[in-house]
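User: Can you help me understand a structure? I only have the sequence.
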Amino acid sequence: DLHYAADFLFCFPRTYQNMSELREISQLEEGRLASVVGVIDEIDLRNTGPGKSLLGMLVKQGPLYLRCLWFNQPWLRQKLAEGRRVLVSGEPKREGLRWEMVHPRIEFLAEDEDAPAGRILPVYSLTEGINQSQMRRVMAGVVETHAGLVEDVFPAEYLEAHNLWPIKTALPQIHSPSDEASQDQARRRDRKSTRL
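Assistant: Let's start by predicting it. Here is the structure, written out as tokens:
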């Protein structure tokens, strides 16, 4: 449960989405992880056998399309709506004249929300009624106003001896890493703290 600022500060991302791989559909390369921003143009849910289904979504980006497929996830259909802006991330594969991603990660973007190019985005565990974008905004606000108030439990000598960042430096980088090296260093602090 998240009730206090400390609850939010120490509710760390379960994973990260590296948006430095944000691509135009025309720039996709087979087998290379990529993220694409576009608009849902078409949605198709088909039964493919007893207890089996195939959900297809066509993402339009300018004149080009990317087909996204999910097997046996019919519940996802109710979250999709034509005309909605999305960011999909996965491994593209060329199928005929069109690119496809099977089981891509999907994030819904607000109409006025910029695509998060070049950033490493935290991915949090969510509860119903809140999306990643909303959770990131809440977390960013809490980190900005409260991370500097957290007292370090380790003395400076210990931090230096173990090459660890102070908690006031690590918390913002855990929640919104500047780059992969910062992400790794901040997560080292997280792992070291939880092992003690």
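Now, to help you interpret it: Residues 164 and 192 are 8 Å apart (CA to CA). DSSP finds five helices and nine strands in the chain. Let me know which part you'd like to focus on.
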